[in-house]
Amino acid sequence: MQSDMAAVANAPATTEPLLKIRELDKHFGPVQALYHVDLDLPSGKVTALCGDNGAGKSVLTKCIAGIYQPDHGQVFWEGHPVHVRSARDASRLGIETVYQDLALADNLDIVQNMFLGRERVRLGLLDEDSMERAAAETLASLRVTTVRSIRQPVASLSGGQRQSVAVAKAVMWNSKLVIMDEPTAALGVVQTRQVLDLIKRLRDRGLAVMVISHNLTDIFEVADRIAVLYLGRLAVQDDASKFDLQTIVEYMTTGGTSRTGGPNTKAS
Q1: Which whole-number Å values give the CA distances from 89 to 66, 67, 103, 167, 250, in the listed order?
Q2: Overall average pLDDT of the 10-18 stretch
Q3: Domain-by-domain residue ranges, the chain?
Q4: Distance of alpha carbon 193 from alpha carbon 91, whole angstroms
Q5: Could you say which DSSP state residue 13 is in?
Q6: pTM of the model
Q7: Is 254 exposed, middle or buried, given 0-12, 13-18 or 19+ CB atoms closer than 10 A?
Q8: Quick check: helix, strand or coil at residue 220?
Q9: Domain boundaries 1-94+174-268, CATH class
Q10: Residue 46 in contact with residue 206, Cβ under 8 Å?
Q11: Where are the alpha helices (DSSP H) in 120-244?
Q12: Tell me: the pLDDT tens digits for 192-246?
């Protein structure tokens, strides 16, 4: 499995979307959470995944991240069919997920968090200098400049700074797709601005970004594409320019729109 994942991860880029999902189903006992979902996530684009509570956003995210196994359907990575059976498989491909709880250890500093579980060792000892340099370079490349020190305990960081560290942790492992779950939830205006700018920088670096958010204002600012789930089905996906606020709300609450000439339900 590891060699297969490595081969796909190193495959040359194609005109295909970086990640393509077709006919994906997921059941939990008698409850069907996802029905025949098709989704495209292109490189260099921010795709916003919208939907009301219970629409299936978290289930779809965890299927992509390898936490859940689909019951039916196919996942293509750079045009190649893959089976993502674990979070480790996802990481090997270049898929990293920043969950809403951020999964940071408050008692550790920024460097320790960024290398947690992937520590560098030299001559039997932790290579602190190498990890510090890599952490600093990653934060600088993302223009994360508000932290006082990379040895600052995560417990002392603001919400926006914590989100920035979680994203930096994700992208320093040669990731190609970063999934962000409610990245601006409970943040103030200044911190939200920092995170939205960070999302744009990920896109500008050529990464595919999927943002799950209820904040439609934030979505319209950063999204290049919008996909809407309704009761486990993908109601629509299209360029963000094809949507307005009312259209998204209609798709989220009814699964369709009364407007003509609106977004397409097929991949664009």
Answers
A1: 7, 10, 19, 19, 36
A2: 65
A3: 1-94+174-268, 103-173
A4: 28
A5: P
A6: 0.86
A7: exposed
A8: helix
A9: alpha beta
A10: no
A11: 128-141, 159-171, 189-204, 216-222
A12: 998 999 999 999 999 999 999 999 999 999 999 999 999 999 999 999 999 999 9
